[in-house]
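Give me the fold.
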Amino acid sequence: MLNRLMTSRRVRGFLLTVVILSAIVAIVSVFIPFNRRRDAINTLGEQSLSEATSLALSLEYYNGLRIQSLIDYPSETAFYQNLCAFLSRAKDTLSYDRAYILYRGLEGRIAYLADADYGANLQEGVDYHGVGAEYSDDRYTSQCRSILQSQFDGSITTYLPIHDTQGQVIAVLGVDARLGYSDFAQYGPINFERTATIAALLFLISLVLFVLCMDKGLTEEEKENRWRRRRGLPPKPTKKDNKRRGKSRMEKNQDQVIEQTVNRIVELFHPSRVIEYNTKYDMDGNISAFKLCIVGDIPDKRRMLTRIFDEVDSDIPYDVLLYTDEQFRELTEDDGAFASHVNQKGRVRYEK
């Protein structure tokens, strides 16, 4: 029963369909969450850029001179505290993860000028970055580490320049916006991560079963030929090929027998034409008998027939039909005559 199932074309067709469909489902289930994440990041980036642009314009319009003064004399003045409080309100209102202003400090290093996380009761360097604190890349390292732990976590950082009254860039506003929705693998009741896992397992199982069924349906000769093809060897001749070759050789030998018979008759009687017709075959396709129509100068047909059957031997039984040249010429002009049929359907073996 199991062997019959494994060699069934319907079963193999069903398994092939499952292989294709499960592969498509797995690919789609992986592609959709990444596509949703990309769209969310693009939307968040556009929104963050628009909001941060307005924020940067308001800072340079209302506080440009004071920001320049803070850059010249960086310290936690009353303006510094008000600036941090303004960034904090903007951060909460616009749902930013972080908001800060950067400037070029001592020795050309990029440093913090103001941080939205500032608080009078908070510890500098732990809870917030103080004025003049170096802007390092540590958070990018931690972000890369978190990406390895959570595949769909991410954030957008936007930088906008702050100009003075002469149009020179004096500082840079930086805002970090985190994706508010991070479970891109879940869409309503559908969990694409789970769907992709199930489809991948189904793909592997059905592929293994399909390969086993294909191998089970092969004969020993087909398996050997597959092994030969993999190693660049010619296929092993099948029984049908051997039978066909043997039949071809036999047909060639039989044709040689007829040709030898014709040659012997030509040698003895010098006819003008010899035509093979009405050739008979047995169930195996071998020639069982043939007839020859001999045309020429024949003064005595009875005597010539006797000599042919006495002096011309053949391994295949044959019969002979005799016509003089004049008789054959006249009869072939009549479409209803047997000689005309022989002339049209027969095979000319010899002709002067």
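The radius of gyration is 50 Å.
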